[in-house]
């Protein structure tokens, strides 16, 4: 069995699973892109272990849920390219997910910090 | 794009993905939509400079299953009416064949192993009943082999049909006995209807339990935020 203190990858993967759909919606909102473009941008931001094959099913699900849609954009070379863009439902969902994430993030951050009274007692014991 | 990269690798990978969708019962309309979208996205990715080994790094079966994992109701499900037709239809035909075989099999004049005649024929009936039930379950498994819930449905159906037979036959026999084992067509039809009602109940219950489990699994997947 992997040592939870040394092998952090499974935990990282679990954490990522919970937020990757939100990250994809946010990236598409900032700039409509195709799936491979999103993989490259995620890698640029440090999430280099997300492959085309692991992101594609997620994008398929978001498309089926009506949060992403295909948009045709002109290309400088060759035929117009199809990129993903955020639908109205996608914008609403992203807004709600972002608020939820921010609330969760601040709650967890507060939990990780020692309470003021305890830290004061700890300081006094030194 | 590297022109020297073997495009046939990508085409072969796509064929395996498509084969998996077909094998797991994804309706052809949904399968065609997914395939067209995948081909379009792969072409876009290649146009943007993606290498083939990057695109096919995920195992095709795992990829295909992940793509359809969140589709839920779009994947379609086994129709209850069709399930009843296949299961009970096979049962009626099997029972008729089993009844016919009683006249064709050259039974010994005296029951073997010193068994009482009634005990011997009880064993014969149980054996024939088991064959009919196996045929019913086998027919369902074969007919609905492309549906993903079949793997869960079949064992439940087998258990349910066995219980329904054990409950339904004594009740039908008791009904027949109350009419002095009359050969009146109406009495015989009612006996058959009692057994069929038990079997139909088992079929519907097995399917309902299968769907409940499927919905629970889907809800758990959604809560887990499965990618």
What does this protein structure show overall?
The complex is a heterodimer of chains A (126) and B (227). In chain A, strands 1-2 form a two-stranded antiparallel sheet. Chain A is 63% helix and 10% strand. In chain A, β1 (68-73) and β2 (81-86) form a beta hairpin. In chain A, 23% of the residues are buried. Chain A is built from five helices and two strands. Chain B is mostly helical. Classes of the chains: A mainly alpha (126), B mainly alpha (227). Chains A and B meet through α1, α2 and α3 of A and α2 and α4 of B.
Which blocks of ≥5 consecutive residues of chain B have pLDDT under 50? 221-227
User: Sheet with the most strands of chain B?
Assistant: none
What is the CATH topology descriptor of chain A? Arc Repressor Mutant, subunit A
- What is the H/E order of chain A? HHHEEHH
Q: Tell me the span between the first and last alpha carbons of chain A.
A: 39 Å
Tell me the strand order in the biggest sheet of chain A.
1-2
Kindly estimate the percentage of residues of chain A that lie in beta strands according to DSSP: 5-15%
Runs of chain A with pLDDT <50, length 5+?
Answer: none
CATH class of chain A: Mainly Alpha
List keywords for this structure.
heterodimer, A: 126 residues, Arc Repressor Mutant, subunit A, two-stranded antiparallel ribbon, 5 helices, B: 227 residues, mainly alpha, 8 helices, 76% helix
Strand-helix topology:
The complex is a heterodimer of chains A (126) and B (227).
Chain A: H1 9-30, H2 35-44, H3 52-64, E1 68-73, E2 81-86, H4 88-112, H5 116-125
Antiparallel strand pairs in A: 1-2
Helix pairs in contact in A: 1-4
Chain B: H1 7-23, H2 28-47, H3 52-55, H4 60-69, H5 80-104, H6 117-143, H7 150-178, H8 185-224
Helix pairs in contact in B: 1-2, 1-4, 5-6, 5-8, 6-7, 7-8
Give a quick precis of the structure.
The complex is a heterodimer of chains A (126) and B (227). Chain A is mostly helical and 126 residues long.
């Amino acid at each position: 069995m992997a040592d939870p203190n040394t092998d952090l990858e499974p935990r990282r993967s679990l954490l990522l699973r919970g937020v990757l759909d939100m990250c994809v919606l946010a990236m598409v909102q900032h700039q409509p892109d195709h799936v491979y473009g999103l993989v490259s941008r995620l890698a640029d931001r440090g999430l280099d272990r997300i492959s085309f094959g692991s992101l594609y099913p997620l994008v398929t699900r978001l498309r089926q849920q009506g949060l992403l849609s295909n948009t045709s954009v002109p290309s400088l070379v060759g035929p117009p390219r199809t990129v993903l863009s955020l639908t109205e439902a996608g914008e609403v969902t992203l807004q709600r997910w972002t608020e939820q994430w921010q609330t969760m993030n601040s709650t967890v951050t507060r939990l990780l910090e020692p309470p003021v009274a305890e830290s004061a007692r700890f300081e006094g014991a030194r | 794009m590297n022109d020297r990269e073997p495009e046939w690798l990508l085409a072969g990978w796509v064929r395996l993905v498509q084969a998996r969708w077909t094998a797991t019962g994804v309706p052809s309309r949904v399968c065609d939509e997914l395939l067209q979208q995948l081909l379009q996205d792969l072409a876009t990715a290649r146009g943007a400079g993606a290498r083939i080994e990057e695109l096919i790094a995920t195992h095709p079966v795992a990829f295909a299953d992940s793509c359809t994992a969140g589709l839920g109701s779009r994947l379609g499900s086994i129709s209850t009416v069709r399930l009843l037709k296949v299961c009970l239809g096979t049962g009626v035909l099997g029972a008729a064949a089993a009844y016919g075989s009683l006249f064709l099999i050259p039974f010994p004049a005296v029951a073997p192993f010193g068994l009482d005649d009634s005990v011997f024929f009880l064993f014969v009936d149980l054996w024939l009943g088991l064959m009919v039930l196996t045929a019913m379950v086998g027919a369902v498994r074969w007919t609905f082999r492309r549906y993903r819930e079949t793997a869960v449905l079949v064992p439940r159906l087998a258990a349910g049909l066995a219980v329904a037979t054990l409950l339904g036959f004594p009740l039908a026999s008791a009904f027949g006995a109350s009419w002095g084992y009359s050969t009146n067509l109406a009495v015989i039809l009612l006996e058959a209807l009692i057994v069929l009602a038990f079997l139909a109940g088992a079929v519907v219950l097995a399917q309902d339990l299968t769907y409940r489990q499927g919905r629970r699994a889907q809800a758990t997947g959604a809560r887990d935020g499965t990618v």
